[in-house]
Specification:
Immunoglobulin-like, three-stranded antiparallel beta sheet, elongated, 2 domains
Length: 163
Protein backbone atom coordinates (compact mmCIF):
# COMPACT_ATOMS: atom_id res chain seq x y z
CA UNK A 1 0.00 0.00 0.00
CA UNK A 2 1.12 3.53 -0.58
CA UNK A 3 0.49 4.58 3.02
CA UNK A 4 2.95 2.06 4.46
CA UNK A 5 5.86 4.11 3.18
CA UNK A 6 4.41 7.18 4.90
CA UNK A 7 3.79 5.43 8.24
CA UNK A 8 6.87 3.18 8.41
CA UNK A 9 8.89 5.58 10.63
CA UNK A 10 6.23 5.30 13.34
CA UNK A 11 6.15 1.49 13.56
CA UNK A 12 9.37 1.18 15.60
CA UNK A 13 8.14 3.55 18.31
CA UNK A 14 4.60 2.22 18.75
CA UNK A 15 4.42 -1.38 19.88
CA UNK A 16 0.94 -2.84 19.75
CA UNK A 17 -0.63 -0.18 17.55
CA UNK A 18 -0.72 -2.25 14.36
CA UNK A 19 -4.52 -2.06 14.15
CA UNK A 20 -4.36 1.70 14.55
CA UNK A 21 -2.06 2.03 11.54
CA UNK A 22 -4.21 -0.37 9.52
CA UNK A 23 -7.25 1.80 10.28
CA UNK A 24 -5.38 4.91 9.15
CA UNK A 25 -4.36 3.14 5.95
CA UNK A 26 -7.98 2.17 5.26
CA UNK A 27 -9.12 5.70 6.04
CA UNK A 28 -6.62 7.28 3.67
CA UNK A 29 -7.01 4.71 0.88
CA UNK A 30 -10.79 4.72 0.62
CA UNK A 31 -13.34 7.28 -0.43
CA UNK A 32 -14.86 8.71 2.75
CA UNK A 33 -18.23 9.14 1.09
CA UNK A 34 -18.58 5.38 0.70
CA UNK A 35 -17.32 4.41 4.16
CA UNK A 36 -19.14 6.88 6.41
CA UNK A 37 -22.83 7.51 6.65
CA UNK A 38 -24.61 10.44 8.21
CA UNK A 39 -27.80 8.43 8.70
CA UNK A 40 -28.87 7.98 11.37
CA UNK A 41 -27.33 10.87 13.28
CA UNK A 42 -25.49 9.80 16.41
CA UNK A 43 -23.77 11.12 19.53
CA UNK A 44 -20.95 9.61 21.56
CA UNK A 45 -21.00 10.65 25.21
CA UNK A 46 -18.22 10.15 27.75
CA UNK A 47 -19.80 9.58 31.17
CA UNK A 48 -16.51 9.11 33.03
CA UNK A 49 -13.03 7.71 32.38
CA UNK A 50 -14.34 4.22 31.65
CA UNK A 51 -17.98 4.53 30.56
CA UNK A 52 -19.44 5.77 27.27
CA UNK A 53 -22.84 5.90 25.58
CA UNK A 54 -23.54 5.85 21.86
CA UNK A 55 -26.87 7.47 21.00
CA UNK A 56 -28.62 7.05 17.64
CA UNK A 57 -31.70 8.97 16.52
CA UNK A 58 -33.83 6.18 15.08
CA UNK A 59 -37.36 7.59 15.23
CA UNK A 60 -39.78 5.43 13.31
CA UNK A 61 -37.89 2.20 14.02
CA UNK A 62 -39.04 -0.27 16.65
CA UNK A 63 -36.83 -2.51 18.78
CA UNK A 64 -37.50 -5.46 16.47
CA UNK A 65 -36.22 -3.43 13.49
CA UNK A 66 -32.79 -2.88 15.11
CA UNK A 67 -29.95 -5.38 15.46
CA UNK A 68 -26.86 -4.66 17.59
CA UNK A 69 -23.76 -6.88 17.43
CA UNK A 70 -20.00 -6.84 17.81
CA UNK A 71 -17.54 -8.45 15.42
CA UNK A 72 -13.75 -8.13 15.18
CA UNK A 73 -13.56 -5.11 17.47
CA UNK A 74 -16.44 -3.23 15.84
CA UNK A 75 -19.85 -2.27 17.16
CA UNK A 76 -22.36 -2.84 14.36
CA UNK A 77 -25.85 -1.37 14.59
CA UNK A 78 -28.26 -2.24 11.79
CA UNK A 79 -31.74 -0.96 11.21
CA UNK A 80 -34.02 -2.62 8.70
CA UNK A 81 -37.32 -0.88 8.11
CA UNK A 82 -39.54 -2.06 5.34
CA UNK A 83 -40.83 0.84 3.29
CA UNK A 84 -44.56 0.53 3.53
CA UNK A 85 -46.28 1.62 0.38
CA UNK A 86 -49.32 3.46 1.53
CA UNK A 87 -51.93 5.47 -0.25
CA UNK A 88 -50.96 8.74 1.44
CA UNK A 89 -49.56 11.50 -0.75
CA UNK A 90 -46.56 13.09 0.93
CA UNK A 91 -45.83 16.76 0.21
CA UNK A 92 -42.56 16.40 2.15
CA UNK A 93 -41.05 13.23 3.54
CA UNK A 94 -38.24 14.18 5.91
CA UNK A 95 -38.38 11.33 8.39
CA UNK A 96 -35.81 8.80 7.27
CA UNK A 97 -37.06 5.24 7.35
CA UNK A 98 -34.44 3.65 5.15
CA UNK A 99 -32.31 0.76 6.26
CA UNK A 100 -28.93 1.62 7.77
CA UNK A 101 -25.73 0.14 9.12
CA UNK A 102 -23.65 2.16 11.59
CA UNK A 103 -20.22 0.73 12.43
CA UNK A 104 -17.99 2.08 15.19
CA UNK A 105 -14.49 0.79 15.93
CA UNK A 106 -13.98 -0.26 19.55
CA UNK A 107 -10.73 -0.48 21.47
CA UNK A 108 -9.70 -3.98 22.56
CA UNK A 109 -10.68 -3.25 26.17
CA UNK A 110 -14.13 -1.77 25.43
CA UNK A 111 -17.15 -4.03 25.91
CA UNK A 112 -20.83 -3.44 25.26
CA UNK A 113 -22.67 -3.13 28.56
CA UNK A 114 -26.23 -3.07 27.22
CA UNK A 115 -28.71 -1.11 25.14
CA UNK A 116 -32.02 0.66 25.57
CA UNK A 117 -34.55 2.25 23.25
CA UNK A 118 -36.73 5.11 24.43
CA UNK A 119 -38.45 8.04 22.73
CA UNK A 120 -36.86 7.33 19.34
CA UNK A 121 -33.30 7.29 20.75
CA UNK A 122 -31.26 4.09 20.86
CA UNK A 123 -28.58 4.14 23.58
CA UNK A 124 -25.75 1.61 23.68
CA UNK A 125 -23.67 1.54 26.86
CA UNK A 126 -19.95 0.83 26.60
CA UNK A 127 -17.46 0.20 29.37
CA UNK A 128 -13.67 0.27 29.13
CA UNK A 129 -12.40 -2.66 31.20
CA UNK A 130 -8.65 -2.35 31.60
CA UNK A 131 -6.98 -5.57 32.77
CA UNK A 132 -4.53 -5.27 35.67
CA UNK A 133 -1.57 -6.11 33.44
CA UNK A 134 -2.40 -3.13 31.20
CA UNK A 135 -2.85 -0.60 34.00
CA UNK A 136 0.05 1.78 34.68
CA UNK A 137 2.46 0.54 37.31
CA UNK A 138 5.64 1.83 38.90
CA UNK A 139 8.85 0.01 37.99
CA UNK A 140 11.40 0.27 40.78
CA UNK A 141 15.05 0.71 39.92
CA UNK A 142 17.46 -1.38 41.93
CA UNK A 143 15.76 -4.74 41.84
CA UNK A 144 18.04 -7.46 40.57
CA UNK A 145 17.22 -9.23 37.34
CA UNK A 146 16.56 -12.65 38.83
CA UNK A 147 14.76 -14.29 35.96
CA UNK A 148 16.70 -12.56 33.18
CA UNK A 149 20.38 -13.24 32.68
CA UNK A 150 20.83 -9.87 30.96
CA UNK A 151 22.99 -11.49 28.32
CA UNK A 152 22.30 -8.76 25.80
CA UNK A 153 23.18 -6.08 28.32
CA UNK A 154 26.41 -7.88 29.30
CA UNK A 155 27.61 -7.83 25.72
CA UNK A 156 28.06 -4.08 26.06
CA UNK A 157 30.68 -4.61 28.75
CA UNK A 158 28.41 -3.89 31.69
CA UNK A 159 28.62 -6.39 34.57
CA UNK A 160 25.21 -7.23 36.06
CA UNK A 161 24.89 -9.36 39.15
CA UNK A 162 22.33 -12.10 39.00
CA UNK A 163 21.46 -14.63 41.65
Amino acid sequence: MTVISRLTPFYHATLGFENFFQDIEKYLDTDLKTTTSAFPPHNILKLDDNRYVVELAVAGFSEKDIDISTLNGELIIKGNKEDKTDSAEYLHRGIGLRSFTKTLRLADTVEVEGAEYKDGILRVGLVNIIPDHKKPRKIEIGKKLNSTKAQLLNEGGVNYETE
